[in-house]
């Protein structure tokens, strides 16, 4: 944050934030024109960091990761891009890529990861003092966010407009998607020249779609009755005017083309991928907002961005793992296994092969225990390891809204910039217990980090997270926590800049010191 303060001292001048990032997961582009931001009073503050991974011990003056988070958000338009960028950073940080289909050869002191579906990722670092029965210290989050996704047959035409049919994914605030500059991103399958098939990520950086609202002159009661769009008929993005090659407009009718998607859309994709249209044999695309993530507020204290839920948690966990294991001495006295688990499909219940409902993480844990223990594992080695393990379920939390304070329980009002929020629910919508909350807060207390607590009102329903799913999967101790935010599930969300660094430090402290905290308390 020192860098942010210095930048404010520079003379103001306009900034240009060019279109967003290349589809290649191996590259990180610059959302601004230079390493030093030139700021005007009307321009969003976009970051460009060097993406370096801090390896020095945690101190009060340690560099902020806010700039790196903004880069990550701007790169990660979809769950596929978020996973690919995490993969790139892990490789750069010295982690070894595994394949679930191969036999693993793991060593104490080693750092490893694998991906599933390119939307789920498990990374772990093995302590050099790891023995049979040593536990896992895990931070789990998710890569998906509410969005619009293209239907399998997306092409249609109405009133001389080319339309792109979409389905809603998750519980989004869909009215916020109207009148936004939208585009598409995701993955495609290409046919190779040798007959093979290639998996590629794609991101169209320029705005190509928009969902226009109806003019108030044609909907006079909208401000009184509320904006209540029909999600099937009103939430259809426009792609272009419907003109054939001769320039004459087609009659008003649905597209009669045998193609599932508009040829124009396929041409846009082929231009991005530098391939022929016929080479694209399958697409899986999200509709994405093109506005870059940036700092905002009178003091630059906020982060304005899409997908904060839950990429902010994912990135803080990822960086904490990388930075807490980068130094050769970090794992020399560690007995546990430090792990990050990033899952897909949390927003729709987690019941998928790449979601937290699948046994991905626990299968990996079992393989790790068996690989490290070889034939000397002894009775119940995996079960003993789980009993020694602890999981932090990190998902964004509801900060108190100044215009709707009555929506919060009056004694539990999480604020932005006040640290991680520990979530409680007596009906187990969150997996936190009195013991797990104490242990996680004790880590914070040791490092002078603030925490907050949240419980939902008795007259309101409570959301949930992957915490209870994973806690009940094999019986792992779990605490649910999150960074406070506003506008959750909007196309454009907001959180506090300070909370990003606090979460990162808390997660890093969890990896480094939880073993010493845990051994001080014996419950059973």
Structural overview:
With 524 residues, the chain is of the alpha/beta class. The chain contains eleven helices and 20 strands. The strands form three sheets. It has a nine-stranded mixed β-sheet with strand order 1-2-3-13-4-14-18-16-17, with helices on both faces. Strand 19 and strand 20 form a beta hairpin. Helix 6 (308-323) crosses helix 11 (497-518) and helix 9 (434-446) packs across helix 11. It is globular, with a radius of gyration of 24 Å. The two termini are 43 Å apart. Mean pLDDT is 88; it is low at 1-43, 49-59 and 245-258.
Quick recap:
The protein has 524 residues and is α/β, with parallel strands linked by helices. It has helices at 2-8, 66-75, 79-92, 222-225, 263-273, 308-323, 360-373, 381-387, 434-446, 466-474, 497-518; strands at residues 96-97, 111-116, 120-126, 136-142, 147-158, 161-169, 182-191, 197-203, 238-241, 280-289, 294-296, 302-305, 337-343, 390-394, 397-398, 420-424, 451-455, 477-482, 484-486, 493-496.
Placed side by side, the strands forming the largest sheet appear as 1-2-3-13-4-14-18-16-17
Helix content estimate = 10-25%
- Largest beta-sheet characterization: 9 strands, mixed
> Radius of gyration, rounded?
24 Å
Shape: globular
> Uncertain runs with pLDDT below 50, 5 residues or more?
1-43, 49-59, 245-258
Oligomer: single chain
Q: Overall pLDDT, averaged?
A: 88
Tally of separate helices: 11
Distance between the termini: 43 Å
Taken as a percent bin, the fraction of beta residues is 15-25%
Structural class: alpha/beta
Total E-strand runs: 20
